[in-house]
Amino acid sequence: MKMTIKDIAREANVSVTTVSFVLNGKAEKISAETIRKVKAIADRNNYVPNVQAVGLVTRKTKTIGLIIPDIENMFFSALAKHIETAFLSQGYNIFLMNTNDILARDLESIELLNNRNVDGIIISLSKEATQGKNMDKIYTALKMTETPFVIVDRDIPRDDCAKVLNDDVFGGYLATKHLIDRGHMNIACITGPMTVSSAAQRLQGYRQAIEEAGIAWNEELVLEGDYQFESGYKHASTLLKKDITAIFACNDLMAYGVYRACLEIDYRVPQDISLVGFDDLMFSSILEVPLTSVKQNVVELSEKIVATMLGQFNGEPIDMHLMIKPSLTERSSVADAKRSV
Amino acid sequence: MKMTIKDIAREANVSVTTVSFVLNGKAEKISAETIRKVKAIADRNNYVPNVQAVGLVTRKTKTIGLIIPDIENMFFSALAKHIETAFLSQGYNIFLMNTNDILARDLESIELLNNRNVDGIIISLSKEATQGKNMDKIYTALKMTETPFVIVDRDIPRDDCAKVLNDDVFGGYLATKHLIDRGHMNIACITGPMTVSSAAQRLQGYRQAIEEAGIAWNEELVLEGDYQFESGYKHASTLLKKDITAIFACNDLMAYGVYRACLEIDYRVPQDISLVGFDDLMFSSILEVPLTSVKQNVVELSEKIVATMLGQFNGEPIDMHLMIKPSLTERSSVADAKRSV
């Protein structure tokens, strides 16, 4: 039985990544003690280095690793499909990995893809990875691969890496401004979970539009949801008892919950209440009252990701931090506000 | 510049797979002439064999390749997530590849995953791959990897490989029988595209239930859709002019089109027309009139896939052809048929 890198890691009581770095001569960040220990174990056991990790390290494989947090979330599955299509047209194949929003899966996926010699890694981080110290862990893991990478959609506050992000602040502003332009003054907002950066940013955009219009800020009209149908339904049931004429639901799923709440108290959209969503899911166009919604520009996002990655491959100067502006898809869920009597 | 397997393939004018087989001693199906040619080129150029393909060939990597036809189709994204979860619990990671229903992408994905030494391949074939001679191509490509594989959801008529399939005939029967049990006699069917096996099988189940109940077969009540919203809408507009009391839409998306057609002529579901869908998408539960729909058992499907794969790894006897039975999720879109007057 041949010794593997995992066996060495176990014996040396260090991570597989550490062993890999030592044996591949990428050990700048690793202690001299660990390097000595790992090398001794490898020598003693006649470890045959893995060509996959050593000999091929400079050879291009024309493959890209793509790590996403939730394959069942329609935004991410659409994004994955577009990224893949864009890379295919450049002759690259995509290995996709799904993390279920778990940091450990982010880290494992990075290692597995790196071991498979992908030319680059695109990552939309797990929720866990965007919090506190985890941001450093994920950043270090990405840097240590010495493989070009691009951070997509979910951000970490590091300047020295390539990012292509959605401009969620602008999206929240766009939704709210649209309601204000139709004469609405009392606009409620059902937010996403505040631990997720997109949720905080959409709310920021809402606030910006409210303040710009000189409308008094009313904390009571903002309720924190969790991006799921049920929270839209529950919060709408509360909000519809207040003096409001419009709701901005920070994603479409929650907007569907608002429709349900309206139905139960015989409110009509848009006659009795105007509604704007966010994401522009396919289902929003086939609803009985099609939903006006903010659309993330997945095509442009994908194209910029490819350009950013290829730029890194070719050593060209690239724009490190790109923000992609969403647009508003207007349908039938918004009406002019009734004049107060 | 080191010579790669691709360079050899080009010089010998054979496929990369062929070169790989020759150099890895898996050349049973390859002509002596080709073997000689490939080996000569490799020797002449001092080709250093790729440990990835040679030395590691017997080593387990604890990774599985999963190939699906459309990541944006919610059935497949749910299936991918469940398969991944089931394999993770056994210590396996999943590399996912999406083919956009293109045969060439099936073949390329098989080769790429095989080159990355996955322990097994799970494949839900592209539409193209399930037609005519393509079935042989895909079967040969899978066999030549000498890696255990499991065919999932979409079938090819070969007996000597492991398959885990949905029982779509039973699903179609279940939907139609439910309508018959509620007193419906004039039941229309909007099918999927007849080139796809699931569509033909769901129709077969419909026919089986109709004939079992002794209802006269009426060809005019069966219209071929394409699994998209628009075809459900268009065909429903035609069917609702006929003497029917119920529609079986062979997927939920087309059922949503039926709702839209009903709305336009002021028909109510289920008072004026009963409706059953297929797939049980999440959206079916949040509709104004929640949809009764056939639910594929993705959890059982995933578990059987894992069991079939692990059985192959361990050389255990496995059930080669498993059919997973769907169930019916009853909601509010079916009412008792009105008695004729």
What do you see in this structure?
Two copies of one chain form a homodimer. Chain A is α/β, with parallel strands linked by helices. Chain A folds into three domains: 1-59, 434 Repressor (Amino-terminal Domain) (Orthogonal Bundle), CATH 1.10.260.40; 63-160, Rossmann fold, CATH 3.40.50; 168-295, Rossmann fold, CATH 3.40.50.2300. Chain A has eleven helices and twelve strands. Chain A has helices spanning 5-12, 16-23, 32-44, 74-88, 103-115, 134-144, 168-181, 197-212, 229-239, 252-264, 298-313, and strands at 63-68, 93-98, 120-123, 149-152, 162-166, 187-191, 222-224, 246-249, 274-278, 292-295, 321-324, 327-329. In chain A, the strands form two sheets. The first copy, chain A, has a six-stranded parallel sheet, sandwiched between helices. Chain A has a six-stranded mixed sheet with strand order 7-6-8-9-10-12, with helices on both faces. In chain A, strand 1, helix 4 (74-88) and strand 2 form a beta-alpha-beta unit. In chain A, helix 1 crosses helix 2 (16-23). The radius of gyration of chain A is 24 Å and the shape is elongated. Chain A starts with a helix and ends in a 12-residue tail after the last strand. Mean pLDDT of chain A is 90; it is low at 50-58. The A-B interface holds A 2, 4, 48-52, 55-56, 59, 63, 71-72, 74, 77-78, 80-81, 84-85, 93-98, 100, 108-109, 112, 116, 229, 256-257, 259-260, 263, 283, 286, 288 and B 2, 4, 48-52, 55-56, 59, 63, 71-72, 74, 77-78, 80-81, 84-85, 93-98, 100, 108-109, 112, 116, 229, 256-257, 259-260, 263, 283, 286, 288.
